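Key result, reporting period 2: structure in, sequence out.
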């Protein structure tokens, strides 16, 4: 079964062509460690929502590749937190089956 990493292998933070949100298709689906995640990408801005498995704490990571700044729950993030975000994104994409996800694209602008 293909993973999400296989499906978006060409998407990197420098890629400005992919815009959308990748999330589980059902609230009942979880990663192997019991956590849940959703990933939004828009013109070099990556937003990762991570729900931890034990305490159900929700953390919001927002990385902007244009100015190379990270916000974690709306406060300035550290280099350690950026490393954590990168590990979480990789874990998410490597451990979900593409059939368990939905991709939500923004509506097209009407001209």
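The corresponding designed sequence is given below.
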């Amino acid at each position: 079964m293909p993973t999400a990493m296989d499906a978006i292998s060409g998407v990197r933070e420098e890629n400005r062509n992919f815009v959308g949100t990748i999330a589980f298709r059902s609230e009942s689906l979880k990663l192997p460690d019991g956590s849940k995640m959703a990933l939004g990408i828009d013109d070099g801005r990556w937003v990762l929502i991570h729900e931890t498995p034990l305490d159900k704490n929700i953390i919001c990571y927002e990385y902007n590749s244009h100015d190379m700044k990270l916000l974690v729950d709306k406060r300035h993030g550290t280099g350690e937190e950026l490393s954590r975000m990168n590990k979480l994104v990789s874990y998410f994409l490597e451990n979900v089956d593409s059939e368990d996800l939905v991709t939500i694209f923004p509506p097209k602008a009407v001209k």
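Residues 4-99 form one domain. The beta strands are 19-24, 36-42, 45-51, 58-64, 69-72, 75-76, 101-104. This case is discussed further under Risks and Mitigation.
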